[in-house]
Design a protein that fits this description.
globular, 3 helices, alpha+beta, about 15% strand, Four Helix Bundle (Hemerythrin (Met), subunit A), three-stranded antiparallel β-sheet
Length: about 110
């Protein structure tokens, strides 16, 4: 089955932002600006994981963490969001110069 890689549409961006908002909401309202800092993003992700606020079966919440981790990587090494379609599945991913294929995570070469 071939994969199609395309830029995210409005619906994709809305979902990505909703996932960011869930993570950002763990900051107090007056500290939500900290989400723009890579170290603060990573610190918040670690806090959420260490506190056990997400269980293994909570896929949507885990995906929210993935969006935030992708944002942190993007800030550090320069990536862009893409949507990977394979059959009926559409998955939001970051694209970089690296290519590492595993069962669920795919990084695509920037063209």
């Amino acid at each position: 089955m071939t994969q199609q890689i395309e830029k995210p549409g409005e619906e994709d961006w809305a979902r990505i932002e909703a996932q960011r908002k869930w993570v950002r909401g763990h900051f107090t309202p007056e500290a939500q600006h900290k989400y723009s800092d890579v170290q603060e993003k990573l610190r918040l992700l670690q806090t959420i994981l260490d506190a056990g606020w997400i269980e293994r079966h909570e896929t949507v919440k885990l995906q929210c963490l993935g969006i935030t981790f992708g944002d942190a990587l993007a800030q550090e090494v320069g990536m862009e969001w893409v949507v990977v379609s394979e059959g009926h599945e559409r998955v939001r991913r970051r694209r970089t110069r690296l290519r590492n294929i595993s069962r669920r995570i795919i990084w695509h070469t920037v063209e």
